[in-house]
């Protein structure tokens, strides 16, 4: 999947003007206000009406098809209805739900519980299962580990790696957390003020960043900047 040009404008102001390619797993990294969230909303078709979008897309699937793209949101605690049992919040058949719960290491008993009865890690895994129930071609991750403790964060990232192998989806990880991005993604695209400042193979960029902005982001995330291929 390749986007040659994604441009978001508001009146006469260009807010985002970037290009990127998702071969397997791509991290879109930048500080708050860099344009990450707007890019995510553009791919989901959720931009405010007053904003204009132009996008040149080369892909084997259409972003307009609802089942082709799915989102794992930032906060699992607000992603689900607290007064509805987990099972009632899925739309697919029991077999698909059971398969996803097995892949995510979730007990099937949780389907009969309400969201407040689950831990943060369990809730995030349920939200991932919901995102994958339609077997999307592209999975968008919006800071999915921000609300989790460090140990649970690693568990979720490992699960996402394994799920991508089994479910065969492309992955775009939108984050400011380069350490998590490095753990999960093969490639990285660094954006600042709506522009790409640096992109390429994750290990190459982390070991040899060319831009001061990228170096600052890396230094804010890591004490040790040696990365394995």
If you had to describe this structure to a student in words, what would you say it looks like?
Helix content is 34%, strand content 26%. The protein is of the alpha/beta class and 229 residues long. The strands form 2 sheets. It has a 6-stranded mixed β-sheet, with helices on both faces. The chain has a 3-stranded antiparallel β-sheet with strand order 2-1-4, covered by helices on one side. Strand 8 and strand 9 (195-201) form a beta hairpin. It is globular, with a radius of gyration of 18 Å. Mean pLDDT is 91; it is low at 224-229.
Q: Find the CATH superfamily.
A: P-loop containing nucleotide triphosphate hydrolases
The CATH class name reads Alpha Beta
Termini Cα gap: 23 Å
Main beta-sheet strand count, sense and barrel state: 6 strands, mixed
Q: What coarse outline follows from CA principal-axis ratios?
A: globular
Number of DSSP helices? Answer: 8
Poorly predicted runs are 224-229
CATH architectural group: 3-Layer(aba) Sandwich
Query: For the largest beta sheet, what order do the strands appear in spatially?
Result: 5-6-7-3-8-9
Percent strand equals 25-35%
CATH topology: Rossmann fold
Taken together, the total number of domains comes to: 1
Rg, please?
18 Å
Order of helices and strands: EEEHEEHHHEHEHEEHH
Question: How confident overall, as mean pLDDT?
Answer: 91
- Number of E strands: 9
**Portion in helices:** 25-40%
């Amino acid at each position: 999947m390749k986007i040659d040009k994604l441009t978001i404008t508001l009146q006469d102001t260009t807010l985002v003007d970037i290009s990127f390619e998702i071969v397997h797993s791509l991290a879109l990294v930048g500080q708050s206000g860099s344009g990450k969230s707007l890019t995510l909303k553009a791919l989901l078709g959720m931009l405010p009406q007053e904003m204009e979008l132009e996008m040149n897309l080369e892909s084997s699937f259409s972003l307009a098809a609802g089942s082709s793209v799915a989102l794992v949101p930032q906060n699992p605690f607000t992603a689900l209805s607290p007064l509805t049992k987990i099972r009632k919040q899925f739309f697919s058949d029991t077999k698909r739900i059971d398969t996803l719960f097995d892949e995510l290491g979730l007990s099937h008993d949780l389907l009969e519980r309400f969201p407040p009865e689950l831990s943060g890690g369990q809730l995030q895994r349920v939200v991932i299962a919901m995102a994958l129930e339609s077997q999307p071609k592209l999975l968008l991750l919006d800071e999915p580990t921000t609300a989790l403790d460090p140990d649970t964060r690693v568990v979720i990232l490992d699960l996402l790696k394994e799920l991508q192998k089994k479910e065969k989806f492309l992955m775009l990880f939108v984050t400011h957390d380069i350490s998590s991005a490095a753990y999960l993604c093969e490639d990285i695209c660094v954006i600042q003020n709506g522009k790409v400042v640096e992109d390429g193979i994750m290990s190459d960029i982390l070991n040899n960043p060319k831009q001061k902005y990228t170096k600052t982001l890396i230094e804010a995330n890591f004490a040790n900047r040696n990365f394995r291929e």
